[in-house]
Amino acid sequence: MKNKITEQSIALFGERGFSETSIQDIVDALGVTKGTFYYYFSSKEELLMDIHMGYIQDLLEGQQKILNNEDNSSKDKLYEMVYMLIHTIESRGPSARVFFREMRNLSEDHLSQIIPKRDQFRTNIQALLEEGVNNGEFKKDLKVDIVTFGILGMTNWSYQWFNPKGKLTDQEVAQVFVDMILSGIEMV
Fold first, then answer.
1. What is the C-alpha separation between 114 and 48, in angstroms, rounded?
2. Are residues 14 and 93 in the same domain?
3. What is the Cα–Cα distance from 176 to 13, expressed in whole angstroms?
4. Over the stretch 96-108, which tens digit does the pLDDT of each residue have?
5. Half-sphere exposure for 12 (CA within 13 Å, toward CB)
6. How many CB atoms lie within 10 A of CB 15?
7. What is the pLDDT of residues 111-130, one digit of tens each?
């Protein structure tokens, strides 16, 4: 039931927004009582925190698997990371929308748990780019901090427009993004 509450909440928060969705809306959509909700969550914000934590934790775990693959070059790892972010839109797009749009509704205490994880995801990409610079795959004068933010901006915004059933597959979109990135940073 906890997963059903979470899934329904993600859908409602994505459609209406966190502030505009009440606990009553959530339980009505599921046909359960508020007591059921409070059995699993102490508040609507705790539920939002659970959504945020699940989303960023899954991304960090996927990212770590990519980084730990010593058989792949920095370029390959970059593609895998971009692909992972685009690919998760099919299964986690609504969670991404809630993650990016509703973070402002988390308390300082909850933000203090989410922001370091979000920052870790960013610094892992930055470290990968630095590795690519150091091993000669990327330009020596690459502004890795700015490129990192550029990669995150491209991929994180894609949940707004990417249609997994559209003209291009997630693999093709990831390749377009990586080709665009590498055209500016690859050693020739």
1. 11
2. no
3. 31
4. 889 988 999 999 9
5. 22
6. 11
7. 999 999 999 999 999 999 99
